[in-house]
Amino acid sequence: MIQAILTDIEGTTTDIDFVHRTLFPYAAAALGDFLRAEGGTPVVAKALAEAAEQAGKSGATAEELEPILQEWMRLDLKLTPLKQLQGLIWEDGYRRGRFMGHLYADVPPALHRWRDQGLRLYVYSSGSEHAQRLLFGHSTHGDLSGLFDGYFDTRVGPKREPESYTRICAQTGIEPDGLLFLSDVAAELNAAEAAGLETCLLQRGAAQPCSERPAARDFNEIPQLRHSKGPSA
Prior knowledge:
By secondary structure, this protein is α/β, with parallel strands linked by helices. The chain contains 8 helices and 6 strands. The radius of gyration is 18 Å and the shape is globular.
Protein backbone atom coordinates (compact mmCIF):
# COMPACT_ATOMS: atom_id res chain seq x y z
CA MET A 1 0.00 0.00 0.00
CA ILE A 2 1.30 3.46 -0.90
CA GLN A 3 2.21 5.38 2.25
CA ALA A 4 3.98 8.37 0.75
CA ILE A 5 4.58 10.23 -2.48
CA LEU A 6 7.95 11.49 -3.66
CA THR A 7 7.66 14.00 -6.50
CA ASP A 8 10.03 15.55 -8.97
CA ILE A 9 9.46 19.24 -9.82
CA GLU A 10 10.49 20.21 -13.35
CA GLY A 11 8.02 18.73 -15.84
CA THR A 12 6.08 17.04 -13.03
CA THR A 13 4.66 19.73 -10.74
CA THR A 14 6.04 22.68 -12.68
CA ASP A 15 6.28 23.72 -16.32
CA ILE A 16 9.78 23.24 -17.71
CA ASP A 17 9.50 26.66 -19.39
CA PHE A 18 9.23 28.37 -15.99
CA VAL A 19 12.55 26.88 -14.96
CA HIS A 20 14.38 27.45 -18.23
CA ARG A 21 12.88 30.78 -19.30
CA THR A 22 12.43 32.47 -15.93
CA LEU A 23 14.56 30.98 -13.15
CA PHE A 24 17.72 30.12 -15.08
CA PRO A 25 18.00 33.45 -16.95
CA TYR A 26 17.36 35.38 -13.72
CA ALA A 27 20.17 33.53 -11.92
CA ALA A 28 22.57 33.99 -14.84
CA ALA A 29 21.89 37.73 -15.06
CA ALA A 30 22.20 38.27 -11.30
CA LEU A 31 25.20 36.02 -10.61
CA GLY A 32 27.96 38.64 -10.87
CA ASP A 33 26.31 41.22 -8.63
CA PHE A 34 25.30 38.48 -6.19
CA LEU A 35 28.85 37.16 -5.86
CA ARG A 36 30.26 40.65 -5.35
CA ALA A 37 27.67 41.45 -2.68
CA GLU A 38 27.42 38.08 -0.90
CA GLY A 39 30.65 36.25 -1.73
CA GLY A 40 32.05 36.79 1.76
CA THR A 41 29.08 35.36 3.64
CA PRO A 42 29.65 31.89 5.12
CA VAL A 43 27.00 30.04 3.10
CA VAL A 44 28.11 31.54 -0.23
CA ALA A 45 31.80 31.17 0.55
CA LYS A 46 31.26 27.49 1.35
CA ALA A 47 29.41 26.90 -1.93
CA LEU A 48 32.15 28.72 -3.86
CA ALA A 49 34.85 26.63 -2.19
CA GLU A 50 33.00 23.44 -3.18
CA ALA A 51 32.57 24.76 -6.72
CA ALA A 52 36.29 25.55 -6.94
CA GLU A 53 37.16 21.99 -5.86
CA GLN A 54 34.80 20.47 -8.42
CA ALA A 55 36.28 22.72 -11.11
CA GLY A 56 39.80 21.67 -10.15
CA LYS A 57 40.65 25.24 -9.14
CA SER A 58 40.93 25.15 -5.35
CA GLY A 59 41.47 28.60 -3.91
CA ALA A 60 39.96 30.40 -6.92
CA THR A 61 38.27 33.73 -6.22
CA ALA A 62 34.61 34.46 -6.82
CA GLU A 63 35.61 36.56 -9.83
CA GLU A 64 37.59 33.65 -11.27
CA LEU A 65 34.73 31.24 -10.65
CA GLU A 66 32.01 33.41 -12.20
CA PRO A 67 32.63 32.35 -15.85
CA ILE A 68 32.85 28.71 -14.75
CA LEU A 69 29.54 28.97 -12.92
CA GLN A 70 27.98 30.67 -15.92
CA GLU A 71 29.11 27.80 -18.14
CA TRP A 72 27.76 25.25 -15.67
CA MET A 73 24.42 27.07 -15.77
CA ARG A 74 24.43 27.08 -19.57
CA LEU A 75 25.02 23.32 -19.55
CA ASP A 76 22.44 22.82 -16.76
CA LEU A 77 24.87 20.70 -14.75
CA LYS A 78 23.38 19.07 -11.66
CA LEU A 79 26.17 20.15 -9.30
CA THR A 80 25.31 20.77 -5.66
CA PRO A 81 27.24 24.05 -5.13
CA LEU A 82 25.81 25.51 -8.35
CA LYS A 83 22.26 24.58 -7.31
CA GLN A 84 22.82 26.09 -3.87
CA LEU A 85 23.97 29.39 -5.38
CA GLN A 86 21.05 29.46 -7.80
CA GLY A 87 18.64 28.93 -4.92
CA LEU A 88 20.11 31.83 -2.99
CA ILE A 89 19.78 34.12 -6.01
CA TRP A 90 16.19 33.02 -6.63
CA GLU A 91 15.30 33.78 -3.03
CA ASP A 92 15.93 37.45 -3.73
CA GLY A 93 13.80 37.26 -6.88
CA TYR A 94 10.87 35.67 -5.08
CA ARG A 95 11.04 38.18 -2.25
CA ARG A 96 11.15 41.09 -4.68
CA GLY A 97 8.12 39.72 -6.52
CA ARG A 98 10.05 39.26 -9.75
CA PHE A 99 8.27 35.94 -10.26
CA MET A 100 6.14 33.30 -8.50
CA GLY A 101 6.63 29.54 -8.48
CA HIS A 102 4.64 27.92 -11.26
CA LEU A 103 2.51 24.88 -10.47
CA TYR A 104 0.19 23.02 -12.83
CA ALA A 105 -3.45 23.62 -11.87
CA ASP A 106 -4.00 19.96 -10.90
CA VAL A 107 -1.10 19.91 -8.46
CA PRO A 108 -2.30 21.94 -5.42
CA PRO A 109 -5.69 20.17 -5.10
CA ALA A 110 -3.99 16.79 -5.43
CA LEU A 111 -1.41 17.64 -2.76
CA HIS A 112 -4.16 18.72 -0.35
CA ARG A 113 -6.23 15.62 -1.17
CA TRP A 114 -3.32 13.26 -0.58
CA ARG A 115 -2.50 14.91 2.72
CA ASP A 116 -6.13 14.60 3.79
CA GLN A 117 -5.93 10.89 2.94
CA GLY A 118 -2.99 10.48 5.31
CA LEU A 119 -0.25 10.20 2.70
CA ARG A 120 3.14 11.73 3.44
CA LEU A 121 4.59 14.03 0.78
CA TYR A 122 8.22 14.56 -0.22
CA VAL A 123 10.09 16.38 -2.97
CA TYR A 124 13.21 15.15 -4.77
CA SER A 125 14.73 17.54 -7.27
CA SER A 126 18.18 18.38 -8.62
CA GLY A 127 17.45 21.96 -7.54
CA SER A 128 18.61 22.69 -4.01
CA GLU A 129 16.34 22.00 -1.04
CA HIS A 130 16.29 25.76 -0.47
CA ALA A 131 15.11 26.38 -4.04
CA GLN A 132 12.41 23.72 -3.67
CA ARG A 133 11.02 25.36 -0.54
CA LEU A 134 11.04 28.75 -2.26
CA LEU A 135 9.10 27.50 -5.28
CA PHE A 136 6.34 25.89 -3.20
CA GLY A 137 6.43 28.68 -0.62
CA HIS A 138 5.96 31.44 -3.22
CA SER A 139 3.75 29.55 -5.65
CA THR A 140 0.98 30.87 -7.83
CA HIS A 141 -1.37 29.00 -5.48
CA GLY A 142 0.02 30.41 -2.24
CA ASP A 143 2.38 28.92 0.30
CA LEU A 144 2.24 25.13 -0.05
CA SER A 145 5.63 24.39 1.49
CA GLY A 146 4.07 23.13 4.71
CA LEU A 147 2.32 20.28 2.91
CA PHE A 148 5.61 18.43 2.53
CA ASP A 149 7.24 16.24 5.13
CA GLY A 150 10.69 16.64 3.61
CA TYR A 151 12.79 17.81 0.68
CA PHE A 152 15.69 16.03 -1.00
CA ASP A 153 18.28 17.36 -3.44
CA THR A 154 21.56 16.15 -4.96
CA ARG A 155 23.14 15.87 -1.51
CA VAL A 156 21.31 12.55 -1.20
CA GLY A 157 22.77 11.49 -4.56
CA PRO A 158 22.08 11.77 -8.31
CA LYS A 159 18.52 11.15 -9.41
CA ARG A 160 19.54 8.47 -11.89
CA GLU A 161 21.23 6.22 -9.30
CA PRO A 162 19.23 3.61 -7.31
CA GLU A 163 21.30 4.28 -4.18
CA SER A 164 19.81 7.77 -3.94
CA TYR A 165 16.32 6.34 -3.55
CA THR A 166 17.53 3.76 -1.05
CA ARG A 167 18.91 6.64 1.05
CA ILE A 168 15.60 8.50 0.82
CA CYS A 169 13.74 5.43 2.06
CA ALA A 170 16.18 5.08 4.95
CA GLN A 171 15.80 8.73 5.91
CA THR A 172 11.99 8.68 5.73
CA GLY A 173 11.63 5.29 7.38
CA ILE A 174 9.36 4.10 4.56
CA GLU A 175 9.81 0.74 2.87
CA PRO A 176 10.53 1.10 -0.87
CA ASP A 177 7.25 -0.48 -1.97
CA GLY A 178 5.36 2.05 0.14
CA LEU A 179 6.87 5.05 -1.66
CA LEU A 180 5.54 6.24 -5.03
CA PHE A 181 7.92 8.35 -7.14
CA LEU A 182 6.49 10.74 -9.74
CA SER A 183 8.68 12.06 -12.56
CA ASP A 184 8.65 12.90 -16.25
CA VAL A 185 12.11 11.36 -16.78
CA ALA A 186 12.26 7.63 -17.53
CA ALA A 187 15.89 7.27 -16.39
CA GLU A 188 14.97 8.58 -12.95
CA LEU A 189 12.04 6.20 -12.73
CA ASN A 190 14.29 3.31 -13.77
CA ALA A 191 16.63 4.10 -10.88
CA ALA A 192 13.73 4.35 -8.42
CA GLU A 193 12.29 1.03 -9.61
CA ALA A 194 15.70 -0.61 -9.21
CA ALA A 195 15.57 0.49 -5.57
CA GLY A 196 12.12 -1.09 -5.18
CA LEU A 197 9.92 2.02 -5.34
CA GLU A 198 6.58 2.28 -7.09
CA THR A 199 6.69 4.77 -9.97
CA CYS A 200 4.50 6.73 -12.35
CA LEU A 201 5.61 8.58 -15.48
CA LEU A 202 4.05 12.03 -15.93
CA GLN A 203 3.36 12.69 -19.61
CA ARG A 204 1.86 16.15 -19.51
CA GLY A 205 0.49 17.33 -22.82
CA ALA A 206 0.31 13.81 -24.23
CA ALA A 207 -2.94 12.95 -25.99
CA GLN A 208 -2.80 9.50 -24.43
CA PRO A 209 -0.14 8.28 -21.99
CA CYS A 210 1.94 5.61 -23.67
CA SER A 211 4.41 3.73 -21.50
CA GLU A 212 5.27 0.24 -20.35
CA ARG A 213 5.13 1.53 -16.77
CA PRO A 214 2.20 3.29 -15.03
CA ALA A 215 1.73 6.70 -16.65
CA ALA A 216 -0.55 9.72 -16.31
CA ARG A 217 -1.17 13.06 -17.97
CA ASP A 218 -1.70 14.82 -14.64
CA PHE A 219 -1.92 14.13 -10.92
CA ASN A 220 -5.58 13.14 -11.18
CA GLU A 221 -4.80 10.19 -13.46
CA ILE A 222 -2.07 8.46 -11.46
CA PRO A 223 -3.16 4.78 -11.56
CA GLN A 224 -1.91 3.82 -8.11
CA LEU A 225 -3.83 6.68 -6.49
CA ARG A 226 -6.95 6.96 -8.59
CA HIS A 227 -9.05 4.95 -6.15
CA SER A 228 -6.79 5.15 -3.10
CA LYS A 229 -8.06 6.43 0.21
CA GLY A 230 -4.62 6.51 1.75
CA PRO A 231 -2.82 4.33 4.29
CA SER A 232 -5.42 4.94 7.01
CA ALA A 233 -8.26 3.36 5.00
